[in-house]
Amino acid sequence: MSRLIIVLAVFVTMLEIAPRHALASPKDTEINGYLQNELQHIATLNERSDVAGTRLYISASPVINSAIIWQADGEQRYPATAQVLHVLDQPVIAAEKRLKALAKLARPWRAEEADASGAELFYCYRTQQIICALLNVEQLAAVFSIPPDMIHQQLVLADNEMPNPAWGTWAVAALAILVISISSVLFWRRQQPAKATQTLSQETGFSLGDLTIYPKQLRALRQDIAIDLTDRDVKLLRHFASHPHEVITKQALYDAAWGREFMPNSRALEQHIITLRKKLDPEKELPPVIETVHGQGYRFSPPA
Fold first, then answer.
1. In 10 A of CB 187, how many CB atoms?
2. From edge to edge, which strands make up the β-sheet containing 206-208?
3. Which one of 2, 92, 161, 269 has the fewest beta carbons within 10 angstroms of its own beta carbon?
4. What is the DSSP letter of 243?
5. CB 235, CB 213: distance < 8 Å
């Protein structure tokens, strides 16, 4: 109970010293980093005059529906004006004036809702070039395992609006209540380890460090907490378990979990690994199960 009181005290302190942060979250930086890496990769492909590669990368992305690129002097680099307009380019070309106005506000990024439905967002990022994209909100939320409303909160409201202090008071209070409720649920779950262990242990599973996977039930157990998995999660984890200490290439992981059902240059694996890591360690407090080997792939290193 004392932990819950401490949590509430922290949020009350936040209300006094930083009302704007009532709407913020550590995921804000993570989401922006992800989007900016994606857009920078598109800009790099375009700098190489790789129009086909640029278009293929955008079409393969579940998050980016279309994109437009300008030089700092305002010259349009992509899509090329001399070419026949592609169906993917139509939304950003139609909103060109609006996107240029949005890009002027980018420091270095800026986002706003594309229409009243909230299903899509315009997002502009300024580097040596200016690149604006139309984002699929539902898919972006799925990558980070958060509700779509939180995408709007972190990319649109948190950047564009300073909340009214009175409204911020209620936001902090509501957030504190939510945290207490979640903490209570987690506390209850930790009081039921024997039941979870008994249910899962009826099936023979395989292990990755302190994680035990039960394929038939599509579940895993880590520190007495049951974790729901997908069939693709299980295929990836089984492949890691079969190749301890080895650096496994992305191609090998695609073959193991997707077969040939993927497009070249797809980001599906990276996005799936992000989601899987969040399932296995939502609080980012445990040893990593899957390590990234930059430029090579991924690796599972069992503890000594």
1. 12
2. 206-208, 211-214, 219-222, 225-228
3. 2
4. S
5. no
Residue 2 lies in a domain: no
Position 1, amino acid: M
- 225/99: higher pLDDT: 99
* Dihedral (CA of 84, 89, 94, 98) sign: negative
13 assigned to some structural domain: no
Could you identify the residue written with the tokens 């349009």?
76
Residue type present at position 221: L
On whether residue 167 sits in a domain, the answer given is: no
Residues 129 and 213 in one domain: no
Domain that holds residue 55: 27-160
Q: Are residues 210 and 134 in the same domain?
A: no
- Select from 221, 220, 215 the least CA-distant residue to 235: 215
Average pLDDT rounded to a whole number, residues 250-258: 88
Position 168 in a domain: no
More confident residue, 133 or 128: 133
Stated pTM of the model = 0.48
Residue of 190, 229, 186, 194 whose CA lies nearest to 208:
229
**Distance between CA atoms of 86 and 95, rounded to whole angstroms?**
15
User: 290 with 246, same domain?
Assistant: yes
